[in-house]
Amino acid sequence: MNLEPIITDLLDEIRGTIRYMADSGVTGFECRPETLETIAKWNQPPVPPVLPVLPALSGVEGIGVEGSAAEGSEAEGSEAAKKASGQRAEDSRVEEPVRSSETLEEIRADLGDCTRCRLCENRKNIVFGEGSPQARLLFVGEGPGGDEDVQARPFVGAAGQLLTKIIGAMGLTREEVYIANIIKCRPPNNRNPQPDEIETCFPFLRRQIDAIGPEVICALGKFAAQTLLQTDAPISRLRGRFIDYRGIPVMPTFHPAYLLRNEASKRDTWQDVKKIMGRLGLPLRKTGIRR
Ligand code: SF4
After folding, report:
1. CB 72 within 8 A of CB 103
2. Tell me, what DSSP letter sits at residue 186?
């Protein structure tokens, strides 16, 4: 009898219960953050190796390949990842954060009425991103959905409303952070962006990051995390710890759209969010993420 799935479920239950009790302010047992960190690693295999950068992207720092694993899936990395150099995402060389003198307005003007990739054919609007040009915290999602395409604003649908609540639970407003996506035009039928579309569009987000100079990036969902961190590791293994992106700590966490379908994962995301709050020196709250 294979006991591994039973043990994994049991450990998940224990982890979730302890986190819930800690979040609820229960005291009298061992639930310090360091202990929760240790518990979070129980039964977790190491993060799969980093994918090699696509040859066509070799001159573009900080971009990788989209993965195919479902959000929250424990799917293994690709064969390419398994054969990669053995370098790990969390071991990436830490660089000095890049700051450019370019403004967001200049980047938007350069983007123009972009037709650089095929995604221009079906989009209604380019979704450039919005928020404070001096934001300390940058949220990066995958790409615009239907509501975003119509309104030309990021994260305004149901998932966006949940993101707004998460930002509020941090004691911040949308105007104080910056919200953007890996790609700026809605793919047909919300399909995953293709590598050549990412190759074309991602440099604009990269310039936005350099212009804003955030202290922390929160990668929402597997696609944003995998692209920023050049890995095809599933989000369930990437989330929960800071990983360097060109000198900026990135906290991968679940996408709000995933949280809408998986209520239980809000606890994990709240743990991730609290680490971001700690990094930014924001006062920790016990509210958690609600509907
Ligand atoms: S996705 Fe990016 S590169 Fe492609 S058309 Fe839209 S703005 Fe241009």
Report:
1. no
2. P
pLDDT tens readout for residues 171-205 = 999 999 999 999 999 999 999 999 999 999 999 99
40 and 166 assigned to the same domain: no
Residues 52 and 36 in one domain: no
248 belongs to a structural domain:
yes
Ligand 1 mutation target, pool 183, 198, 202, 223, most atoms within 8 A of CB = 183
Q: In terms of DSSP H, where are the helices of 214-255?
A: 221-229, 235-238
- 231 shares a domain with 101: yes
The alpha carbon of 185 and the centre of ligand 1 are apart by a number of angstroms equal to 6
- Give the tens place of pLDDT for each residue, 222-233: 999 999 999 999
In a shared domain, residues 166 and 88: yes
pLDDT recorded at residue 38: 62
56 and 85: one domain?
A: yes
pTM to 2 decimal places: 0.71
Q: Using a 6 Å cutoff on CB, does residue 184 contact ligand 1?
A: yes
Residue 171 lies in domain: 48-280
| CA atoms within 13 A of residue 8's CA, in its CB half-sphere | 7
Residue 291 has pLDDT above 60, yes or no: no
Count of Cβ atoms closer than 10 Å to residue 112 Cβ: 9
| Closest C-alpha to ligand 1, atom 6 | 185
